[in-house]
Amino acid sequence: MDTNLENLFYIGSFIGTIIFIGSFYGTTKKKLSEIEVDMKEIKSDRIDIIDKLARIETKLDYLNKEK
């Protein structure tokens, strides 16, 4: 009887370990995807800033040529 209980304990521990690793992996993957979304937003913002700076530079060039 003790052997059966020990086997159940080991099987339960193994299943618990797999569930723990799976939940850790899922949480990590979710956080990584959130970081990826944030990085895309930062890249988009950076492109917008560069575009605005280019427009300002063009306007300054135009104003300097008028002088």
Structure, described:
97% of the residues lie in helices and 0% in strands. The chain has one helix spanning 2-66. By secondary structure, the chain is mainly α. It has 1 helix and no strands.
State the gist of this model.
The protein has one helix spanning 2-66.
Entry keywords:
rod-shaped; 1 helix; single chain; 67 residues; mainly alpha
List the helices and strands and how they pair.
Blueprint: H1 2-66
- Give the fraction of residues assigned to helices: over 70%
- The N- and C-terminal alpha carbons lie at a distance of 99 Å
State Rg: 29 Å
Number of strands: 0
| Poorly predicted runs | none
Mean pLDDT over all positions: 88
How large a portion of the residues is in β-strands, by DSSP E? under 5%
**Rough outline:** rod-shaped
Structural class estimated from helices and strands: mainly alpha
Largest sheet: none
Please work out how many helical segments DSSP would assign: 1
Order of helices and strands: H
